Structures are given as C-alpha cells and as structure tokens.
Amino acid sequence: MPVEELMWVEKYRPHKIEDVMNQTEVKERLTPLLEKPKEMPHLLFAGPPGSGKTTLAQIVAETLLGDLKNDYTLSLNASDERGIDTVRERVKVFASYSDRREGVPFRLVILDEADEMTRDAQTALRRIMEESSRFTRFILICNYSSSIIEPIQSRCAIFRFQRVDAERVTSYLKKIAKAEGVKVTEKVLEAIYEATGGDMRQAINLLQASSTGDEVTLERVQAVTGATVKARASEIIKLALDGDFNAARIKLVELTRVYGIPETDFLRFANETVVSSGGERMAQAVKIVAEYDYRLLMGASPEIQLTAMLAELAALKDK
User: Fold this and answer.
1) Residue 212 belongs to a domain
2) Which of 35, 261, 301, 318 falls 20 to 30 Å from 99 in CA-CA distance?
3) Mind listing the pLDDT tens digit for each residue in 266-287?
4) Residue 199's domain spans which residues?
C-alpha cells in the first residue's frame, strides 16, 4: 500500500493553494507569482514546523510543472544532506541542465530545512543560484530565516508562515476523523492541540497514532505523548530553578536526543513553567528564557544554548 494511503498526514495533504490552512498573507502574495511563472523569483519559506511550508512548496511544483513535476524537480532535506559536497554535486548538476520540454518554465530545486546547511554550503549554493537563474528556480524552506546567509536572502522573495491556530487545527482534525470513521471529542482535540502547539503535521500524526479501533481517547493521546513531553520539559526547568543543574542537563539531553522534542517547543514549555512557578525570581527567569530563544532564532547551536540556559536558571538559586 502506498505511503500516501498509510499515513494520514500524506493522505490529507492539501494539493491546492486555497486549501492550505491559515497562511492568508502568504497565499495572497504567492498566487500572482504562480500566474506569471517566468517572472517568479527564488522563494524562501520561513516559519515554525507544521505550518504548511513543505506542502506549499509541493503545490508550487505541481502548479507550475504538472505531470512533469518529478522530472523537473529535485527535493532534498538539507539537514540530512547539508554538506558542501551535496550542494556542489547533486544540486549543481541538476540545476545546470538547461533543457526543458514545451510548457516547462524552469527546473525547480526544493531544499527543506535549509537553515541546517553549513555556511560554506550556503555560499556554494548562492553561486549556483546566480549561475543557473535563467533556467532553474529554488525554494528554500527553513524554520529561521536568520540562519540563511544574507546574499541568499537578498535573492529570494521571503514568505513568513505562522503557527496554525487552534480553531483551524481542530476543524481539520474533525474532518480527517470523520473521513476515517473515527470518533473524537472536543476535549481530545483540545489535548492534541495543546500537545502540538499549532504544528498541523504533528497534530495529524498524533491523531492517527492515538486512534484505537474507531475512537480516539484522551487516555490514548496521553499515552502516545506520554503527556510527557510537556511534563518532562517542566520537570527539567523545575530542577534547574531548584539549583540542580546536572540533573536538569541529563534530562535535557534525553528529551532532545531520545524523544526528539524540537528546541522551540522546549523553550515554549520552559516559558510556561517559569511563568506558572511565580516567586521572586520569575522576572529574571523569563528574561533568561527570552534571551536564549533569541539566540536560537539567530542560529546559535541549540544544545549548547539550552544547556547554558539551564546553567543560568540554576544560578538564580544562589542569588
């Protein structure tokens, strides 16, 4: 059975620009570009996970290239293949071909998680974008546009995506549940949204993973998430605030490497825990979390920065 039929996130992925959730401004700016493909610049899609960036890139490819999409599109996950050799070899070779069939405006290169590329690889990519601009367009997808070097940003039309709001996420999950013959309550949908925080892809995956028989139960949702991701993040922050840096650091490594929680989600849960904890040092702790959120936004190493944040939070105990 094709993966599109096994995985709900693929089965229910939108195929038309108007069906993409939430991103009104992005869609309004992008639609005129698709109507004049020969004038379309390189595109940079930036925003949080699960907000529709990759889906919209695929829609662009389908809209412009139709049935020839597979022949004239190269899709790479830059976090897996982020080195300069990949850029020089796979991307350069593909982008350098000038042959096109009738009706094909250009070749298309889609680089997902482009903010994970090394600076050397990005520099090489910039040169390729310049040399092949007559017959190749690039769509770069990233969480943080600040991690993309300025010479590339200046060559792209930048589109900023927002997290999908609760109403739209729950509405789409209801539609999927109905189509799959699965019962789901409002309370369960709220729990799924709270666990995924506006990440539509993660919400759909959680809905599918939590469906047992013909029903999605709150207990099953909590079992799949462990109700644990948020709880574990909260435990780590509380350990740090209690001055136990070593224990907090060990649990942080486990949470990010074993459970794979995104750093942005950890910071969101950290902020919630700090605010709810109250106390005399709450304002200082909030400033610390905000500082490290900014550092990650600017492209600093997540593991180093989160560890340093825990160290600063732990140091508040002695003040």
Assistant:
1) yes
2) 35
3) 898 899 899 888 777 889 999 9
4) 166-225
> What pTM does this model have?
0.71
SS (H, E, C) the chain: CCHHHHCHHHHCCCCCHHHCCCCHHHHHHHHHHHHCHHHCCEEEEECCCCCCHHHHHHHHHHHHHHHHHHHHEEEEECCCCCCHHHHHHHHHHHHHCCCCCCCCCCEEEEEECHHHCCHHHHHHHHHHHHHCCCCEEEEEEECCHHHCCHHHHCCEEEEECCCCCHHHHHHHHHHHHHHCCCECCHHHHHHHHHHHCCCHHHHHHHHHHHEECCEECHHHHHHHHCCHHHHHHHHHHHHHHCCCHHHHHHHHHHHHHHCCCCHHHHHHHHHHHHHHHCCCCHHHHHHHHHHHHHHHHCCCCHHHHHHHHHHHHHHHHHC
Q: Please tell me whether residues 106 and 127 are part of one structural domain.
A: yes
Question: Both 266 and 220 in a single domain?
Answer: no
For residue range 196-244, list pLDDT tens digits in order: 888 898 899 889 888 877 889 888 888 777 656 778 889 999 999 999 9
Q: CATH code at 263? A: 1.20.272.10
Lowest mean pLDDT among 75-79, 105-109, 142-146: 75-79
- Number of structural domains (the chain) is 3
Domain boundary residue, one of 139, 160, 181: 160
71 shares its domain with 122: yes
